[in-house]
Structures are given as structure tokens and as C-alpha cells.
């Protein structure tokens, strides 16, 4: 059961160091290789990999990726997985700002095997506390609702994601859409493609990754903007896959619940629920903007 852990990274060598230390620790005694896709081509990444790998049995390969974009980095991880271990069965992706809990790596792999899943994922804990601004909490809670272990209809993102060799072999290249490399949404597009091929998705509550939010994302304005931009990207992806009419109809159906929740929040004088409505409305506005041709702002 050979496993490749793939890590896309961009200008975070010290966060990468912590992640590599944890991943290689969890990988000891298992047939695991690690691949780092460096989207900044920084010599510091090579040094970090060498320092972490010194004295460990888990091989670490660094692959520079000159074309900027998360899709480009993820595609490089898949390509390199075939090179470092032609017999690989699972590719597990961790973003460089995450840190898996002890045992999370094998918990995710075991879940995929238990449910014969093509894709599997687990919780990404962003450390939600009462100190977070209200809208930030509402945005995070809306995107991190707890689930039971087992098969699910969809997954949420590329952080803490397992892909099976069986699925990747069936998908035409490139696996992650290059034109979504700088706007995000490449993971949503990937899941739609996987679902069209009959892929099975599984969820493992035990495979927890911690990803504390950086200070610049701890603002109400940032939360609303992120909800807007993510939904704009997803609407654009849905138009690409399902057509304009289908996506417009889905938008119409989604308009009902925010207004129902506004009435409930006002009636119960519930500020947390009202904040959730604000996030939902920003998401609806983003979907409408995506349908109207808005393209999400590139990541910097």
C-alpha cells in the first residue's frame, strides 16, 4: 500500500518545516514518500527538506514549479508521485499552513480503504474561538460542520485530501484546472470531474488537520469577501460543467433560505444567526456575480 504525501508550498519555509517534521514522524514504519511542490523555486525549501530528512527513513523530494498557481502545484504533485513511487496507491495532500494531528495520516488512509473511497478528507480545524470576529466565526462554522465517518456526497477542499491511484489513472490530464490556479476553485472543479466518473467520497473525523488563521484573515470584511469570491468561482465552475440555465436555477433556489433565516434571527434576537445570514447573502451575491461574468481576484 505505497503512499505519497504531497505538499504544495509558497513562501512558507518555516511552516513547511513543521509540517514535514510531523508528516515524516507519522510516516515512519509505513511505505510513505513525501513530495514538495515549491511554487516559488526557493533554495530555502531544498534546505528545509534536507534538514528534516537527515537521519529519517522517509524520502523527501522537492519539485520546483515555475508557473504560478495552486493547480500547477497540485498537478506537479500528481506527476511526481508517479516518478517517486510508480506503485503508489494513495496520494495525500496537505497544504503548507496545516499540521495533522498525530495519527491523522494513517487514519485518512484507513478510512479510504475501509469505504473503498476514491477521495477522502477530514476536518480542518481553524481554531475557532470567541475571540474571532462574529462574521469570521459564522463563515468558518458554515464551512466546517461536523460529519460522521463514512461515505459522503461531496468534499470541501484540497487541504487534507486523499486521492486514490484508481481515480487519478482514469482522469485525463491535467487533473486540476490550470485556469483556476490563481483564482482558487480548482478543488471544487476536481470534485465535479471526479463525481462525473462515479468516484466515491469518504469522510474521516479522526483525520484532523490544524490550520490556524493568519491575522490578515481575522476580519469581518475578509470573511465576507472570501464568501463572495469563493461562490463566484464556484458559480463559474458550475456554468462550465452544467450550463448557465442549471446554475441560474440553483441560484434561484438558494435565495429562499437567507431571507427565512433573517426573519428567524430578528424574531429570536439572535446575532450569531444574523451573522450567518450575512455570510450566506454574500455567498449568494458572489454566485450571482459569477453568473454575470465576475472572475475572482487572483491570489497574491
UniProtKB/TrEMBL annotation:
Keywords of the record: Glycosyltransferase, Transferase
Annotated GO MF terms: glycosyltransferase activity
InterPro entries listed in its UniProt record: Nucleotide-diphossugar_trans
Pathways involved: Cell wall biogenesis; cell wall polysaccharide biosynthesis
Top-level division of the source organism's lineage: Bacteria
Pfam families according to UniProt: Glyco_tranf_2_3
SUPFAM superfamilies the UniProt entry points to: Nucleotide-diphospho-sugar transferases
Entry keyword annotation includes Glycosyltransferase: yes
CDD domains, A to Z: Glyco_tranf_GTA_type (cd00761)
Family: Belongs to the glycosyltransferase 2 family.
Protein name (Swiss-Prot/TrEMBL): Glycosyltransferase
